[in-house]
Amino acid sequence: MNFDWTSFWHYLLQPTSVYLHGLWLTLSLSVVSQSLGTVIGVAAALGTQSRFRAVRALIAFYTWLMRGTPLLVQIVFIYTALAAGGIFRFTDIDLGFVIIPGNIQAAILALSLNEGAYMTEIIRAGILSVESGQTEAAKSLGMTYFKYMRRIILPQAVRIIVPPLGNEFNAMLKNTTLVSVIGVPELLLATQMITSATFRVFELYTVVALYYLTLTTLWGFIQAWLERKYGEPSRNLPQNPGLIGGLRKMLTRGEAAR
Amino acid sequence: MSGDLLQAIGGVSTETKDIVVEAIGVDKYFGAHQVLKDIALTVKRGEVVVIVGPSGSGKTTFIRCINHLEKIQKGRILVNGHLIGYRERNGRLIEDSERNIARQRQEIGMVFQRFNLFPHLTALGNIIEAPIQVRGVPRAEAIETAKALLARVGLADKENSFPAQLSGGQQQRVAIARALAMRPSLMLFDEATSALDPEMIGEVLEVMKELAHEGMTMIAVTHEMGFAREVADRVVMMDEGRIIEDTDPIQFFTAPASDRSKAFLARILR
Q1: CB of B118 within 8 Å of any CB in chain A?
Q2: Whose CA, among A118, A121, A237, B60, lies 20 to 30 Å from A190?
Q3: DSSP state, B118?
Q4: pTM score above 0.90
């Protein structure tokens, strides 16, 4: 077996600045895209209850499209195909203190839109899980739709939403690897760049796998904490699954490129 | 349980109209099935009206129409002289805007069979939520009122309890306090004791009686004939979507006019 332990420990424990930048990109892309995806999901989930048929149809089309095509295709379509077709070309945005390159904008857009479709279903299920008596009580107290959604229904839906939301973020951490194809130098592309210079492919891919495993494991702990926190007021529902259950959940959630 | 529920919210509502509820010719359908047939009912300020009748007679549906949780297909319902849920245009009734309906509901407190407390809020949180969010009452004032109300329903020590930590009777008393905190001019009770264990019915009825004695205008759908006999100014008997009797409780319990009322009483008082 050709495995150089010295290189392995070196890359694992003393990552280069390219690698650290990749780690930063992976984390920030994940957090930003998951947040935007959740916002899209809330809006679209509320839209599925709209009394306007056109709104409902639009959302159905959106989720159908996003869940029915591979994320990798969506990323390339948004960044490369739209530019090639002369429809839209992402250009760098200078925010004064930081420049956001076009391909990172496209990456965030693709990841958020894709995530939003999945979050729509998750949040919709959460809202539907709140019994109708809650809405009636809130209405009888004079609350209007947005008021009771924000103050009464969504806070209760969170309990149902948080476990699958945690799984979504776990998947998101891994799905960011896909934006390497449009040249975003996140962890995977950083690894590829280093291997092309050092040829330590086996060692570096072992290292990058361990980095992802560390990220998802740390997230697993945060997720367990979140589930404990938001499971609080209802004492009669099953709460966080414990270490074994949590591990099983993490392991069964594998489908990276969807 | 000490009295003065209304004192805790600063007295009965400032509404002065003599007639609180006026329902005229109300028809309601669920699909093709007609559940309310030409309902007419007038409730004066301070009156306590108890609606009784066999299940499926439409009494719960009717009470839910009064704060527009259910739409009606014909007729009209006025509360304090204002049309509920609809406005009139060219002689036709069209559904009112959400904002206007919500404003009208502020005047109408409702207590549900299944309590419907907000499980993510404490007892105190349940009571202050709507006054702060809907009426714009300053938080400190809302808390003060809520604490006074909790004390008056005998739950001063439960302000930080979540609904799941309270018994059914305690939850329903919090629900009554929650409705009262909006200073309604009318209270609707939809089978408020039907989901309770027998030993808890009394504590909720006590609060309802107290409220009645203090002059709150109330419409209560209930199977508690003792409550009807003791507190009601009028008993309304419904059957198959119609009001078949509207009379004072003594008359109703001693000499009901219709055979169906007699049969109903025979079944329920057995």
Answers
A1: yes
A2: A118
A3: -
A4: no
